[in-house]
Specification:
Helix content: 25-40%
Radius of gyration: 16 Å
Strand order of the largest sheet: 3-2-1-4-5-6-7
Number of domains: 1
Number of helices: 6
Strand content: 15-25%
Number of strands: 9
Order of helices and strands: EHEHEHEHEHEEHEE
Bound molecules: 5-O-phosphono-beta-D-ribofuranosylamine
CATH superfamily: Formyl transferase, N-terminal domain
Shape: globular
Length: 208
């Protein structure tokens, strides 16, 4: 059984997609051990509690500096002894020490087709604003392992989504979630839980 920690900062629709996929067995061999948020007001915490999943908040504001927070965050995560850390709309930069300790065991969802519209400054609606500004006709989402860079880790799954002429950033964000994020994140977890994902030379190889 793959033990998973899901880290969240906001609404938690990706968390919900994971919970639902475990319930309807689209994801197998997996249990969510804990949901961790940096934001006490995150609705994602309510979603976890409603489902009987342990929900904890660890806020940077409660620590003297970033170093102290990073240390506490790592200790908290370690205490659950999980196999995989899923970043599902988590707006905290993962400390390098954690990336090293959990090498190829942290995955993130990014709402564009990496390497487009990613890296520093591209988060949330800013990604979709960038897509509309550039006028690309296809965007999408990417699930990738987290490495020391920003959105530079090995890519696990991607799914394309069409951009429509009248899209606003909000409308496009919703379509990318519905058509791509909520599908490829559960799929990636299921592949990992069933031993089908390997990283070779910074690239993911999937055995189906
Ligand atoms: C998603 O768009 C995700 O790609 C991004 O943050 C958003 C999180 O949404 N990293 P939610 O909290 O899962 O609803």
């Amino acid at each position: 059984m793959l033990k998973v920690a899901v880290c969240v900062s906001g609404g938690g629709t990706n968390l919900q997609a994971i919970i639902d996929a475990i319930d309807n067995k689209t994801i197998t061999n997996t249990e969510i051990s804990v949901v961790i948020s940096n934001n006490p007001g995150a609705y994602a915490l309510e979603r976890a509690k409603k489902h009987g999943i342990e929900a904890v908040c660890i806020s940077p504001k409660e620590y003297a500096d970033r170093e102290a927070f990073n240390q506490a965050f790592l200790e908290k995560l370690d205490s659950y002894q999980v196999d995989l850390v899923v970043l599902a709309g988590f707006l905290v930069v993962i400390p390098e020490i954690m990336v090293k300790k959990y090498k190829n065991r942290i995955i993130n969802i990014h709402p564009s087709l990496i390497p487009s519209f990613c890296g520093t400054g591209y988060y949330g609606l800013k990604v979709h604003e960038g897509v509309l500004k550039r006028g690309v006709k296809v965007t999408g989402a990417t699930v990738h392992f987290v490495d020391e860079g920003t959105d530079t880790g090995p890519i696990i799954l991607q799914k394309a989504v069409l951009v429509k002429q009248d899209d606003t950033p909000e409308i496009l964000q919703r379509r990318v979630m519905e058509e791509a994020e909520w599908k490829i994140m559960p799929k990636a977890i299921d592949l990992i839980a069933n031993g089908k994902v390997k990283v070779v030379d910074h690239k993911v190889v999937i055995s189906e």
